[in-house]
Design brief:
The protein has helices spanning 7-18, 100-103, 105-113, 145-148, 175-187, 211-219, 230-238, 261-269, 290-299, 301-317; strands at 30-34, 51-54, 72-78, 83-89, 117-126, 136-144, 195-202, 224-226, 242-252. With 319 residues, it is an alpha/beta fold. It folds into two domains: 7-253 and 289-317, Nucleoside phosphorylase domain (Rossmann fold); 255-287, no CATH class. Strands 5-8-7-6-9 form a five-stranded mixed β-barrel, surrounded by four helices. The two termini are 38 Å apart.
């Protein structure tokens, strides 16, 4: 994968794909990025219309090395309305060693393919006690920690053919699309008690957050935390693409302080310890792990499939 991205590199990727597509997919309006464990969303499309490109064959793309990411670009008709759609089954992650520009190259390619609406899904850890494992969170805002310290996909020469030098992110997540997501959930029988709106925080990864880092995010308005999504959203908005983000809560983030070693010693020694009344928890029992992320993704697959198909159908009727 190249270390820098310019219009020529994006055009090369686009031409490779576009020249091999049948006429019905020469222009697609809907794009979907499938997050960890959610790649089975592509199974919702009509297999007779499916066209696949492996990342390793596309100039500028690179296979993902993360379990749960199949590394292919798939075209097909989605939902009852048979909406021509491009699926990104597996994404590039910053923690794999890619630059932010490399991670977001596929979004630029989607723009050239005609995509006007992008649905971005991810697996995330819940920072909000009201969001349980298995719940869905419709993203209404984000905190981009890598971007705030300079690891930003728009750093460098602006690609003027795609967008302005200083795009606004205050409206990154479309109200219209968020409303359609909840309407779709209701119509396919997903309890709205298990669907929320919230703020998604991106950390660089690949390590899961410490409890102190998690408290920092939660205390500053974060509802969920993950290692992706925001760079793609930023570039999509730079391109003028409307965005809907959906996070699947696959684990509860450890926020409590854990056992206080000094307090335990004081207790054992029979010494005063009330001034060290920190909240205690057996941390080992709730440590985050990738296996839990995959298991939860698999368990909620059917709901995610029904939800995304219905959103696609509502997009057609809501024009």
């Amino acid at each position: 994968m190249p270390t820098t991205i310019n219009e020529s590199a994006i055009e090369t990727s686009f031409e490779y794909i576009h020249s091999r597509l049948p006429e019905e997919f020469k222009s697609v309006k809907l794009g979907i990025i499938c997050g960890t464990g959610l790649g089975t969303l592509v199974e919702t499309i009509d297999p007779a219309t499916k066209h696949e490109f492996h990342y390793g064959d596309i100039p500028g793309f690179s296979p993902s090395k993360v379990i749960g990411h199949a590394s292919k670009l798939v075209f097909g008709h989605l939902g009852d309305a048979r909406t021509p759609t491009v699926f990104m089954v597996g994404r590039f992650h910053y923690y794999e060693g890619h630059t932010m520009q490399q991670c977001t190259l596929p979004v630029r390619v989607m723009k050239l393919l005609g995509v006007e609406t992008l649905i971005v899904t991810n697996a995330a850890g819940s920072l909000n006690p009201n969001q349980k494992v298995g719940d869905l969170m419709v993203i209404h805002d984000h905190i981009f920690l890598p971007g705030l310290v300079g690891n930003h996909p728009l750093i460098g020469t602006n690609l003027n053919s795609f967008g302005t030098r200083f795009p606004s992110m205050s409206d990154a997540y479309s109200y219209r699309l968020r409303r359609l997501a909840f309407l779709a959930g209701h119509q396919v029988g997903i309890s709205l008690d298990t669907m929320h709106e919230g703020v998604y925080c991106m950390v660089g990864g690949p390590s899961f957050e410490t409890s102190a880092e998690s408290r920092l995010l939660a205390q500053n308005g974060g509802d969920a935390v993950g290692m992706s999504t925001i760079p793609e959203v930023v570039v999509a908005r730079h391109c003028g693409i409307q965005v809907l983000g959906i996070s699947l809560m696959t684990n509860a983030v450890v926020i409590t302080r854990g056992r206080n070693a000094k307090k335990d010693v004081l207790i054992d020694a029979g010494l005063p310890h009330d001034h060290l009344a920190h909240e205690e928890v057996e941390r080992d029992a709730i440590v985050a792990n990738h296996e839990e992320v995959l298991e939860t993704g698999a368990a909620r697959t059917a709901d995610m499939q029904r939800l995304v198909k219905k959103i696609a159908d509502l997009l057609v009727t809501d024009q």
